[in-house]
Specification:
The complex is a heterodimer of chains A (121) and B (158). The relative contact order of chain A is 0.23. In chain A, helix 1 runs antiparallel to helix 4 and helix 2 packs antiparallel against helix 3. Chain A is mostly helical and 121 residues long. Helices cover 80% and strands 0% of the residues of chain A. Chain B has one domain. Chain B contains five helices and no strands. Classes of the chains: A mainly alpha (121), B mainly alpha (158). At the A-B interface, helix 1, helix 2, helix 3 and helix 4 of A face helix 1 and helix 2 of B.
């Protein structure tokens, strides 16, 4: 759980939002670029989950551990759900669904960082 | 065409009545909030219900409202729309009442709910969402009315 990783995730999430909005404006369904961005986002989120799990096992305890863990698990599911949904959506709003997923991830990782840094002393 | 590969194939226009693409996006946002409010309420009630029962029960109520609205909007049809209309109306009243009370009497709300301070903790999305929901329901209703106009009286037989 580092600000650098969270920042990187945010950049990719914003990229995904941009691509999603773009394809809606262009009246297109999602394509390879969306899948690559969503895939990259998912890899980064899994990396973050692994690092956080290792650190939790190492004894770091955020104040609200239950909330933190549910966010940690939840955020990993979001891009997958977004892609699955967007691929079945045949209208131009497929990109927007993915953009929503990207925005949700962008917000959730910052909330995660907040929870992580609030250690109960 | 490279662009087609990268940005996707051309979209199909339209869709079934009441399930326009724009509506689907709204369903996605509602689903997110159903999940977020539900998880939050579950954690709060499971770990520290005694601290602020009113706030946590409100979180749970908000979660139920979001779930009903999500399902109603996703299913569409007259029944789905009616369920969504009720849920979204409760949501709008809830966010306004809870938002006002939480600012007027902070002591009554020692812990945040989704609707505290008009949803400030969630970038005011809870305040905007019901308005978008009601607009979407109205356009869905109009669309449905156009697809199946009220039956005209049968032609008189001689």
């Amino acid at each position: 759980m580092t600000p650098i990783l969270v920042g990187t995730i945010t950049v990719v999430a914003v990229l995904l939002v941009g691509l999603g909005v773009l394809s809606t404006l262009a009246r297109r369904r999602i394509g390879l670029a969306h899948l690559v961005a969503a895939g990259l986002l998912e890899v980064l989120l899994l990396l973050q989950a692994a690092l956080a799990t290792a650190s939790l096992a190492g004894g770091h305890r955020p104040e609200e551990t239950a909330t933190f863990v549910s966010y940690l698990v939840g955020v990993v599911v979001v891009p997958v759900a977004g892609v699955l949904w967007a691929r079945t959506e045949r209208t131009r709003w497929a990109g927007s669904v993915l953009a929503v997923a990207g925005a949700v991830v962008g917000v959730m990782v910052w909330r995660l960082l907040q929870l992580w840094e609030a250690t109960g002393a | 065409m490279r662009e087609q590969g990268a940005l996707g194939a051309p979209a199909e226009s339209g869709g079934e009545p009441g399930t326009s693409g724009r509506g689907r996006v709204l369903v996605a946002v509602y689903a997110t909030f159903a999940l977020a409010a539900g998880a939050r309420a579950a954690v709060q009630i499971a770990t520290r219900f005694g601290e602020a029962p009113v706030a946590y029960l409100l979180s749970a109520l908000a979660a139920v409202v979001y779930v009903v609205a999500t399902v109603g909007l996703a299913r569409g049809g007259p029944r789905g729309r009616r369920a969504a209309l009720v849920a979204i109306t409760v949501e709008l009243i809830g966010v306004l009442v809870v938002g006002t009370l939480s600012l007027a009497d902070p002591a009554a709300f020692p812990d945040e709910t989704v609707w505290s301070a008009y949803g400030r903790g969630y970038y005011f999305v809870p305040l905007v969402l019901p308005v978008l929901g009601l607009l979407q329901l109205r356009s869905a209703r109009q669309q449905a009315a156009q697809k199946s106009p009220p039956k005209s009286p049968p032609p008189k037989s001689p």
